[in-house]
């Protein structure tokens, strides 16, 4: 399956460092509390869109208090 390869720093909208995250290598979009990526199954020759919910999206959106 998909390996986690990207390491990124996550900041609040106010610019405060929150944490470091590991993202899927094909991450394309982070929007409205979801992370969208895609995966390629080489054995079947199929591409799949994958969506993950960001559990603390509200906290990230509001910023540090």
Explain what the structure shows.
The protein has 65 residues and is mainly beta. The protein has one domain (6-62). The protein is 9% helix and 49% strand. The protein has one helix spanning 57-62, and strands at residues 6-11, 17-23, 29-31, 34-41, 46-53. The strands form two sheets. Strands 3-4-5 form a three-stranded antiparallel β-sheet, with no helix packed on it. β4 (34-41) and β5 form a beta hairpin.
Give the C-alpha Rg.
Answer: 14 Å
Can you tell me the number of structural domains? 1
Molecular shape: elongated
Tally of extended strands?
A: 5
Strand order of the largest sheet: 3-4-5
- Coarse structural class: mainly beta
Q: What level of helicity do the residues show?
A: under 10%
Q: What is the average of the pLDDT values? A: 76
Count helical runs: 1
End-to-end separation in angstroms reads 38 Å
Specify the biggest β-sheet: 3 strands, antiparallel
β content, as a range?
A: over 45%
Assembly status: single chain
Low-confidence segments, given as residue ranges, are none
N to C succession of SSEs: EEEEEH
Structural features:
three-stranded antiparallel sheet, 65 residues, 49% strand
Structural topology:
Layout: E1 6-11, E2 17-23, E3 29-31, E4 34-41, E5 46-53, H1 57-62
Antiparallel strand pairs: 1-2, 3-4, 4-5
Task: Provide a brief overview of the structure.
By secondary structure, the chain is mainly beta. Helices cover 9% and strands 49% of the residues.
């Amino acid at each position: 399956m998909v390996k986690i390869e990207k390491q990124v720093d996550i900041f609040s909208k106010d610019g405060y460092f929150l944490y470091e995250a590991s993202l899927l290598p094909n991450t394309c979009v982070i929007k409205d509390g979801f992370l969208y990526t895609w995966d390629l199954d080489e054995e079947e020759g199929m591409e799949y869109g994958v969506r993950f919910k960001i559990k603390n999206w509200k906290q990230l959106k509001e910023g540090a208090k």
